[in-house]
Amino acid sequence: MTKASEQRHILIADDDPGIRGLLCEVFDEEGYLTEPAEHGGEVLAKMTKKHPYDLLIMDVRMPGQDGLTVLEQLRKNGITTPVIMMTAHGTSSTAIRAIQIGAYDYVIKPFDVEEVTLVVKRLFDHQQLASKVRELEAKSFDPRDKMIGNSPAMQEIYKQIGRVAHTDATVLITGETGTGKEVLANLIHVNSARRNGPMVKVNCAALPESLLESELFGHEKGAFTGAMAQRKGRFELAHKGSIFLDEIGEMTLSTQKKLLRILQEREFERVGGTTTVRVDVRVIAATNRDLEAEVRAGTFREDLYYRLNVITLYLPALRQRTGDIPLLAEFFLDKYRYSPSSPPARISEDAMERLNNYDWPGNVRQLEHEIERAVILSRGNVITSEHMSLVPSSRSALQVDIAARLREQSTLDELLADVERLALQEALVQHDDDLKAAARSLGLSEAEFQKRQKKYTS
């Protein structure tokens, strides 16, 4: 018996004393607190007296007021207790109507007791996920600045935020597109001493070089055709706050040189001006590129890279923290309600399995769009795999891993070396460290096996 189940109070309503008694007995044995009701009027009386019920399990057909009428009345009275309906017509309009007016789920009579207990467990698991989302939301200063996830990788990110946010150190955020680099930058800002100052954002990839310099540093009147008045740049606007330079790897070498001076001196001149402007700004930059490789290729300044790389935070891809998918899905279900007054949609088990098994090349951003689309197609009710655009992957685990490594710009030699190293290790495991047998299984001599193995142990 768990502590959680001891705190759950379930009202079970059915005019059949056999079913009512059976369910009370089953859930009592599970450690829940149960209470019976024989008809709709009794349900309304018990619920409106503010009994602390965590769940109502109710039959559709009952004498007097039927289950659907009772459910409608409860919702009109503002009672949001989750309701599971029992019906002998699970494919009829009655069952569909039950979901539309606010039932959490329904079970079809005659039912398997294990099926009912599974539905109840799923409901309470859903509530725990929603509670975790609210806890994570409460930790942020602003509702736009949230990172959702309890995986070890995200816990490490939270620790790093705690260590660097209160400083003025320049931060470089790396990771694939869609992982949430802008959200992380927001979190650093709102948890810093600069939280009351501005947070100015610049997408370096969205502006051509001719405009980027003016956007960053501003310009004087008459500096170029169309410059009808003096204009402050983003760095000036970010004074006493933070500036977020997204996709900094797209910046040209010419603009990189001018940015380097700001990082070093915290001063610059507007385009077309001679007056030096000093600013107090914390710089946070982000990129999905490998800047070290860009430095080697000569497309990114080495001195600027080291100036930016004071603190580096790596945001893992969604496929590297799949345990966070249910929590993220719950957050987006709440965010994209079908209407402001409707409860969050729910995800069926087959749909959740598809979410968990997908590769997510677009990361969290792709998941968010997928949930938003599914909520619309399901009209805010139960989301099934039919409401999803995801195509189940027929690729092997090795193919998925290779695709991920290619997105991280691994070379062919690096990929082949990893495959060889893993093959040598696995051969030894499968043959209980019998070197001769392991070598034979790979078509190698013992000497050749040891030679290849030595490359990865030296």
Automatic annotation (TrEMBL):
Record has Magnesium as a keyword: no
Keywords for the protein's UniProt record, in alphabetical order: ATP-binding, DNA-binding, Nucleotide-binding, Phosphoprotein, Transcription, Transcription regulation
Pfam families: AAA_lid_14, Response_reg, Sigma54_activat
Keyword Transcription: yes
Annotated ranges, domain Sigma-54 factor interaction: 147-376
An annotated GO BP: regulation of DNA-templated transcription
Tree of life domain: Bacteria
Modified residues (4-aspartylphosphate): D59
Gene Ontology molecular function terms on file: ATP binding; DNA binding
Gene3D superfamilies in UniProt: 1.10.8.60, 3.40.50.2300, Homeodomain-like, P-loop containing nucleotide triphosphate hydrolases
Domain Response regulatory, residue spans: 9-124
Name used for this protein in its record: Transcriptional regulator
Species this protein is from: Herpetosiphon geysericola
